[in-house]
Specification:
alpha/beta, Rossmann fold, Guanylate Kinase phosphate binding domain, 5-stranded parallel beta sheet, 7 helices, about 35% helix
């Protein structure tokens, strides 16, 4: 299913009673994924910036060392290896990867903490992460954001990526877009505001994703 023929786009204060604090909050997770240069990171940041009381970034747990310009929760929840392993053993971390000896994964506890604040977690993740989320939570809405390859290349040059990185990201694009049909919705991100309107329409008017 795509979001290309959506009805009149709502503003957030026109959304259904799901955002009304007087009715029960129905938790959901929204995955926004896409190739590099399609704008998924910008969209997630913009949604959180505009509506900080309703959206939050779903932050992964990581075992790598915190860098001088980082802090707890930005960009990861930093733990040591024994703590990470204990979280896996308890079932709290339900999906993780190991790369160059460093572990990174998603924690159910941190997701539930956001639900307790009546916030919708936003996450960018591949199909492995999507399957893990859908196996653990009832309400997961997945959105694949893309753009034409020529537009992607223009954006990568525009933001000053190194030539070798641009070549690699364009090669990754061809692989990444093959995953698009496995997401609930596909949006061609030509205009940021229109894309955000479509995403808000999906989140608030489509019954909190698919069960």
């Amino acid at each position: 299913m795509t979001a290309t023929n959506t009805p009149q786009q709502p503003t957030l204060n026109q959304t259904p009673t799901a955002v009304n604090r007087n009715v029960p909050f129905v938790p959901q997770i929204v995955v926004i994924e896409g190739p590099s240069g399609a704008g998924k990171d910008t969209i997630i940041k913009e949604l959180i910036h505009r509506y900080p009381d309703r959206f939050a970034k779903l932050v992964s747990v990581a075992t790598r060392a915190m860098r001088p310009y980082e802090s707890e929760g930005h960009p990861y929840h930093f733990v040591d290896n024994p703590t990470f392993d204990a979280m896996v053993q308890s079932g709290d971390i339900f999906e993780f990867t190991i790369r160059h000896g460093e572990k990174r994964g998603m924690s159910e506890r941190y997701i539930n903490d956001l639900f307790a604040e009546h916030k919708i977690p936003l996450k960018d993740c591949d199909l492995v992460g999507v399957r893990a989320l859908k196996s653990r939570f009832n309400h997961v809405t997945t959105i694949f954001v893309t753009a034409d390859k020529a537009e992607i290349e223009r954006r990568l040059h525009g933001r000053g990526d190194a030539p070798d990185d641009i070549v690699r990201r364009l090669q990754d694009y061809d692989h990444c877009v093959l995953d698009a049909p496995h997401y609930d919705y596909v949006i061609n991100n030509v205009d940021l505001q229109k894309t955000i309107d479509k995403i808000l329409n999906i989140i608030y008017n489509k019954g909190y994703g698919k069960q």
